[in-house]
Structures are given as C-alpha cells and as structure tokens.
Amino acid sequence: xxxxxxxxxxxxxxxxxxxxxxxxxxxxxxxxxxxxxxxxxxxxxxxxxxxxxxxxxxxxxxxxxxxxxxxxxxxxxxxxxxxxxxxxxxxxxxxxxxxxxxxxxxxxxxxxxxxxxxxxxxxxxxxxxxxxxxxxxxxxxxxxxxxxxxxxxxxxxxxxxxxxxxxxxxxxxxxxxxxxxxxxxxxxxxxxxxxxxxxxxxxxxxxxxxxxxxxxxxxxxxxxxxxxxxxxxxxxxxxxxxxxxxxxxxxxxxxxxxxxxxxxxxxxxxxxxxxxxxxxxxxxxxxxxxxxxxxxxxxxxxxxxxxxxxxxxxxxxxxxxxxxxxxxxxxxxxxxxxxxxxxxxxxxxxxxxxxxxxxxxxxxxxxxxxxxxxxxxxxxxxxxxxxxxxxxxxxxxxxxxxxxxxxxxxxxxxxxxxxxxxxxxxxxxxxxxxxxxxxxxxxxxxxxxxxxxxxxxxxxxxxxxxxxxxxxxxxxxxxxxxxxxxxxxxxxxxxxxxxxxxxxxxxxxxxxxxxxxxxxxxxxxxxxxxxxxxxxxxxxxxxxxxxxxxxxxxxxxx
Length: 558
Hints:
Layout: H1 3-22, E1 30-31, E2 75-79, E3 84-88, E4 94-103, E5 111-114, E6 123-128, E7 131-134, E8 141-145, E9 157-164, E10 167-175, E11 181-189, E12 195-200, H2 212-217, E13 220-225, E14 230-234, E15 243-247, E16 250-256, E17 260-265, E18 276-281, E19 292-299, E20 305-313, H3 316-321, H4 337-358, H5 362-404, H6 409-422, H7 429-438, H8 440-453, H9 476-493, H10 500-516, H11 522-555
Helix pairs in contact: 1-7, 4-5, 4-8, 5-6, 5-7, 5-11, 9-10, 9-11
C-alpha cells in the first residue's frame, strides 16, 4: 500500500471536516421564550395564539383553580405479547412502557422499560382561547373496551373522559395486537377557539444500558417534515432556556436514546395533525445534556385529532414496516446523513438478510461480511494496485522529461504525454488508481453509525466479547486491527522502490487508527480487522508481481 492510499484517507477526512464549514446548514428558527407551564407561581395572561399555518406560537398562562392536583393517580394498562403500556388517569398520560423481550443491561436487573422517573412518556395540554389547561391535573374517568374475538382489526381500547367545566375531552388508546404501536384519538367539545393540543414528548429516559454515558449522548428529538428528509435535534443542541421551532406539517416526531424511541406518527390515511415542533433546552447538571423538552402542536378542530403512537425498540425492520419513512427516525450521520443514510440502509439490509439466511451469530456474520466485501472489491483493488505499479515505473521517465525540458513547457508537456502514451496510460491514471481504494470507506463509515444505534446488536456476545455493540474490554480487537493494518502496509512496500514518505505513513497510521478506534464498538473493530486480513493475500500477490516486473525490466538491454 503506497502513500496515495493514506493521501486519499486524509482527503476524505478533509471533506468531512470542511463540508459543514463551506456548506453551512441553516439553523432552526428560534422561537420566543415563554414561561414554564409547569411553574406553580401564576404567570400573566398573554394574547391569543397566532393561527397562521406553520407559525403557531401558543401562549402559556397559569393553570386555573379547577386544575389543582387531586388524589393519587390510578394506573391502567394495555398489554400484548411485546409490550405493556401503562397510563395514569390523571391527564391520560402514558407513564411507562414495559418491554419483556428486552432486559436491562446496566446495574439493575429486570425487564427493560421506557421511563423517566416520575415524568410521563407522553403528556397532553390544551390551549383554549387565552387559557392553558394542564390535563395532568385533571382526573379522568376510565373505561375499557375488549377486542372482539376473531376480528383481526379489533383492538383493546382504554377511553379516558375528562370534564373541563363546560367543556370535555376524550382520549382513547387502542393497542395493536402484536406491535409497540397504539392508535390515539383526542376529541374535545365546548372549547373556546382558537384551540390547540400540545403533546409533550419524553424529556429524557432512564438509561437501561451498561454504558450510561454513551446512552445519554444519543438523546435527541427527530422529526420529518412532509415532503422533506428526517432531521434531528440533539438534547445538547439548544442552550438552557432556548427554544427551537420547526414548522410543519410533520409526518412524525420522536424522542430517542441509543436504542429506544417514543414517537407520534401521522396516520397513513389522513393528513398530518402536527403543525409544528418546539424543542427547549433544559438546565444541565453535568457536561452531557440529559434533559430537554419537545412539544408538538396540533390545531383543534371539529374532527377528532388522530395519530399513531410508537413506543419501543429501534428495530429496523419493524420501523420500516410502519411506512412513512419511519425507519429514518434515527437519522444516521448528523449533517452528512444524506450521504451516510443510503449506505447504512444497504448495510442493514445485507446484515439482516445474512442473519435470516444463515441463522448464525452476528459476530460470524460480520466476519463473512468483511471477507465478502473484499472479494467483491478484489478486481477493482487489483486494477488499482497495478495502476500504482505502472505509475512507479513511469515516474522516473516523467521526472527525466521534466528535467530535460525544464526551460520549454510545451516540449515538456509533449514529452510527458508521450511517456504516458507509450505505457498506455493517461495523466489521470494515478487518480483512477486511488479511487477503488476509497470504495470500502462508505461501508466503514456506515457501519460506524449502524453500530451506534442498531438494537439488533445490543447485548450480542461473540467469542470473548460480551457485547459487540460496546468496546472490547480487553482491547484485543482494536490492537489486532492496528497490527493487521501495519501488515498490509509492510507487504505493500515489499519489492517497491524506496519511499521514505510511504515508510513513515506505514509506521504512523496503524497506531493512530488503533488509538482512534480503541473505545469504539468491538464489532466495528472486528469487521475492520477481518477486512485487513482478507486483503493480505492480494497484497502479497501484487508484491510478487511487482518483483517479477522489476526483474524483467532489469534484464532488458538499455
């Protein structure tokens, strides 16, 4: 492997670093600051909300006396084979979700749950005229409707009915029989207009992971505007007290951590009820932002507001089956998601297909995947390496032509073109030889993001690795990756003309990559190590071919 491979890596890094500087993304608009609706002290009344589509700025005022807290809440549940949704009769809140098929990987044992202490996973508020009604302070009457036996479309339903003086609100949850999905309808009567429903997404999650810090780093709100791409606002994005406004209409919006999400989706058969999303930064007690507030605004009209609620794991196939591009509810790659997301999708499809077709552990699938990628790229890599050999042969002739006609640029250019023509090459041959070496990079980058959030790898063991989604506790895989990378460089320099720069890069890059990947997912290091090892035979063959060419050239009479 010569210096041009490392030059290509450096150029790739430059593109990654400079792209956001040159092509700056437009910041989300910042909405005006408003009072905290959860404050106990009264806030002055504000004017009625602006009803302009896509620019809803609802007011907030203190709760009315009738909304003071009542007796302790009652818990009600909806259950299926996959999940247990738990609700409070205060405000019809979704308080937590039990997921029996997943376990806690942290210090606590037991079934994984979507929860955040005493805070709800989904909360409702109403704005009616100049009043803000906090529904979590309103006790609701609860009725249960069982699913009709033999009817696949029938769902068990909880209906919450609340009285707001002369007005009323009815909230229904109907849980799908074999999914983490519920249909939610909100129907109001007697509210002064204009009126808005505010749906508060989770302000955070109690971590269920062994690496709590890594879990918190993935806290974010994600959303998709109708006709647009999925976007993400990390909890750390807004400063404390700053509110970011994302106008809609929105197809969906979610709150997420590393592996789980709680989100609302526009029903496929209806227009979007979601006018906009507000994200507000919260005070931080540590370096990593663990809290934020995300609120969806839905105008209240004569018809009930209906949407789907998903609260469960980020299982790629399950999210894909829901449609509405919900598989992108965890946008990969941040500002380079437009480039990374397609490759991540391809990688996920291939890995899941291999798992289904072969039925073996994901660790072995990564080994096979790494070997398969190298086999597919074998012809291109061989062509690139032979192009490098040609460039090494013609390099002295080009240097000689440059020196001979240094004073005459036209003759110099003609002499260099003749050298290229005599060897069936062009000035672009060197660049063309480097491009195949970059082909594995998109897959490598996609795998990096896939391992960050793919729940299919969560808790999966392989050989000595307890969890391939976490770093290697013994650092075997990153060290093996570095050694295999050095072996590639060393074989690549065999029988090649002396090159001090290539030698320096061969000794410098493996330690740098080892250090860079030291705390990354062990599965990612495993894949990259296998990639390097699978390329060694081709490197050895090309090295021997280079020696034969050099011997043949030396035996020819001058």
